[in-house]
């Protein structure tokens, strides 16, 4: 009996059993089916407040596998945070990524990872754990990629880290949310921008987010095949804002009077900012909202910037540009507290008959129901639990004009350095439909 064909058949079967014939089914942590990927960011926004770093979730769809990376979009370099290759201390960029073979290094030269500020002492020394790379080793297969702002003082992105660590059924991409960090008034971590300690007695019961919160950016690249070989695996992200830039305008008028007054500055408190947002579908959780403080600047009636108000003007318009998830409207025009309420602190100066200056601070509280309905910043889901923005940019024109009586500034000027104590200051209430007289 000739045993040679049988032996050959057995060897072929053993090779077939032990070989990995399907890349997407490969379970080995350091299998040679690794491809090298570079990430590029292209921004359509001229905003100077772009984040320094972005988190990347690389998710293989079949035979689920995830890799987490933090990348500096300005240098296209970064480091692994989840599922780094076990061979990372000795991993080097393949020459196939260079247009031509790189020139030989000079004598005594030791190659280090891109961005690592200190070369190893010897050729056998391992790089630091936080070594920076410009090419990343991923398993082969069909991937989806997500990228999101890294944690900042203004926002929390813990769910994307939880998603990277979760199993297939434990968490979906729609569960990835960002949340504003919130603070109680008086928390030392909350930046102070007011001239004196602010009081929330005019619309109590809501936490604050940091003044001047930065935009949140997000993007996805779906169904991208990653291959091992000489071709370049390049992922191009084009992040877009998932928060909303809002221009707010409020008019302030002056009653006819022989006394001339000037609006010096206006500090605002705005309520109704949703704290949590799902970045994949853009849904905003309206069950919890927060407030924020901001100063305004001055514009003319055409909304063009001007240096400030004057004693000779009859009206002025104040403007603020804020970035937020959106603004939740009041349920009706009768509410004086709750979401969608704008509190203004208006600092004024008037000249008496002898030319002396008198200062006074006015407080106004405006229900913004009509203005927000007209602005159409968002749509509400059928279950009334979530909203999503209608555009990256919105404009809110508060229709009311706050009317100030200049003579009152002279006859009832503030004491205590020009400002009433907060608990004694009167608040003028109104809606955004009718003029508010102060």
Q: How many individual β-strands? A: 23
The biggest beta sheet reads: 9 strands, mixed
Supply the helix-strand structural class. mainly beta
| Low-pLDDT windows of residues | 10-31, 89-129, 415-426
N-to-C series of helices and strands: HEEEEEEEHEEEEEEEEEEEHEEEHEE
What is the tally of helical segments? 4
Shape: elongated
Average pLDDT figure: 78
Radius of gyration: 30 Å
Distance between the termini: 112 Å
- The level of helicity is under 10%
Report the sheet-strand fraction.
Answer: 35-45%
Structure description:
It contains 4 helices and 23 strands. By secondary structure, it is mostly beta strands. Strands 7, 8, 13, 14, 17, 18, 19, 20 and 22 form a 9-stranded mixed beta sheet that branches. The N and C termini lie far apart (112 Å). About 17% of the residues have low confidence.
């Amino acid at each position: 009996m000739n045993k040679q064909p049988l032996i050959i058949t057995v060897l072929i079967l053993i090779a077939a059993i032990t070989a990995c014939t399907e890349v997407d089914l490969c379970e080995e942590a350091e299998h040679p089916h690794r491809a090298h990927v570079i990430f590029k960011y292209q921004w359509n926004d001229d905003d100077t407040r772009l984040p320094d770093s972005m988190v990347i979730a690389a998710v293989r769809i079949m035979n689920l596998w995830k890799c987490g990376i933090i990348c500096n979009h300005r240098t296209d370099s970064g480091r692994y945070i989840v599922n780094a290759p076990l061979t990372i201390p000795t991993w080097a960029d393949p020459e196939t990524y260079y247009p031509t073979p790189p020139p030989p290094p000079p004598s005594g030269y030791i190659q280090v990872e891109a961005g690592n500020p200190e070369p190893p002492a010897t050729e056998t020394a391992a790089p630091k754990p936080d070594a920076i790379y410009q090419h990343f080793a991923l398993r082969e297969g069909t991937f989806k990629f997500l990228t999101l702002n890294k944690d900042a003082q203004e926002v929390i992105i813990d769910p994307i880290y939880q998603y990277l660590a979760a199993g297939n059924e434990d968490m979906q991409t729609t569960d990835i949310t960002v949340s504003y960090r919130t603070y109680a008034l008086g928390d030392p971590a909350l930046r102070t921008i007011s001239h004196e300690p602010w009081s929330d007695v005019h619309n109590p019961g809501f936490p604050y987010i940091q003044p001047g919160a930065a935009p949140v950016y997000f993007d996805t690249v779906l169904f991208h095949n990653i291959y091992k070989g000489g071709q370049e695996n390049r992922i191009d992200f084009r992040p877009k804002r998932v928060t909303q830039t809002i221009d707010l305008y409020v008019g302030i008028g002056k009653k006819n009077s022989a006394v001339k007054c000037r609006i010096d500055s206006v500090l605002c408190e705005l309520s109704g900012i949703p704290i949590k947002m799902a970045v994949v579908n853009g849904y905003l959780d309206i069950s919890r909202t927060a407030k924020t403080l901001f100063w305004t600047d001055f514009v003319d009636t055409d909304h063009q910037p001007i240096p400030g108000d004057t004693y000779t003007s009859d009206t002025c318009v104040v403007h603020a540009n804020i970035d937020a998830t959106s603004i939740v409207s009041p349920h009706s025009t009768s509410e004086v507290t709750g979401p969608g309420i704008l509190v203004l602190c208006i600092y004024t100066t008037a000249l008496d008959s002898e030319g002396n200056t008198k200062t006074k601070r006015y407080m106004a509280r405006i229900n913004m129901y009509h203005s927000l309905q007209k602005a159409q910043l968002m749509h509400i889901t059928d279950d009334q639990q979530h909203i999503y923005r209608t555009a990256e940019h919105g404009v809110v024109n508060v229709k009311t004009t706050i009317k100030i009586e200049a003579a009152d500034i002279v006859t009832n000027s503030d004491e205590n350095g020009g400002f009433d104590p907060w608990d004694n200051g009167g608040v003028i209430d109104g809606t955004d439909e009718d003029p508010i007289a102060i």
